[in-house]
Known about the structure:
It is built from 14 helices and twelve strands. It is of the alpha/beta class. The strands form two sheets. It has a seven-stranded mixed β-sheet, with helices on both faces. A five-stranded mixed β-sheet has the order 8-9-12-11-10. Helices cover 36% and strands 15% of the residues. It binds pyridoxal-5'-phosphate. Residues 89-91, 114, 116-117, 156, 160, 185, 187, 207, 209, 219, 221 line the site of pyridoxal-5'-phosphate.
Amino acid sequence: MGIRAKPLCLLKFEFMKIETIAIHAGNKTDASSGAVIQPVVMSTTFERAEDGTYTSGYIYSRASNPNRTLLENVLAKLDNGADAAAFSSGNAAGMAVFQALKPGTHIILPDDMYHGLRNQLKNLFAGILEFDFVDVNDSDAIKQHLKPNTGLIWVETPSNPLLKITDIKMVTAIARENGLKVVCDNTFATPVFQQPLALGADIVMYSSTKYFGGHSDLMGGALVTAAKDELWQKIKQVQEMGGAIPSPMDCYFLSRSIKTLPYRMAGHAKNAQLLAEYLQKHPKVEQVLYPGLPGHPQHEIAKGQMTAFGGVMSICIKGGQDEANRVVNGVKLFTRATSLGGVESLIEHRALVEGPDSKTPRNLLRISVGLEHIDDLIEDLGQALG
Ligand SMILES: Cc1ncc(COP(=O)(O)O)c(C=O)c1O
């Protein structure tokens, strides 16, 4: 008797908890070999039958590949979306949204949006799209910036690097009233702590380079949609015809890492909360920006829409940039590097990374709290602060 692989479609993921979805929705026992873990399919092309059909459903790997299908399946299920599209980076995922909009569309975006995507818009879409960077936490500011050609509101919560929280329901209510789409960059929270589609967003965006990958060793991006509508069809065309797709190997590693995402996120958030509480009492620290602290200006909103507060924080050091430099150069266990979401803790002087037009305070250090023991992290930052 041949091996009978359990079809993924028979599993009712909508009734399962996120830990179960993360392990099963991106994995399929291989029908031909019985391998419990799916093989990596490197082939770029797939055999066509004499009658012109493709029995496997695959034609050419830019359009789709078995490893990408599994990755997109788990991504869609984690956010309880209708479909997902995987990209070669977070910026490629964001760009697919912008490329899918009709030229001349006006977008409202956060004034403290991730600088890489802000720069992408300013450099690559000037003259093609219209955009305003506004305080999207202020409903009046959003309403004042609405124009007849506004098509989209972009939110990023928690934001990078100021850890501001945007009330997703407030923004989606304004969008509904005005027939607009909402995209939420959910990179910091991940679907484990925040479900933007359930709060009314149309599309969720991720840099999967961060927590999905989780080990600082691959680049990726993702979009998950609530509905397979016209905008989504266009985004899928951008993905397939533009070809900014992750390799089969990267899809495999992402599906593998996602299996531990809920447990890693719990560890990141636990460590971050303890570190934030330690740092806010430290005499050399002016301010800790972390939504899990009751003193954070939008702590109540965060509590209402997140189940925990993530693993990233920023701290402002007393004494300006020189003191911040001294601290960042004094760490031994933390690594001085940009990015976030890996198992190892990173620290960076954010304004230097963002470049000359950065509005980030010069005394701000962004910290990605890893999964080392919290005592060792506290000891290292303690000695660096002095
Ligand atoms: C919030 C956020 N969105 C998007 C991106 C872009 O992702 P990538 O670096 O994978 O292109 C990043 C990267 O740091 C990010 O932090």
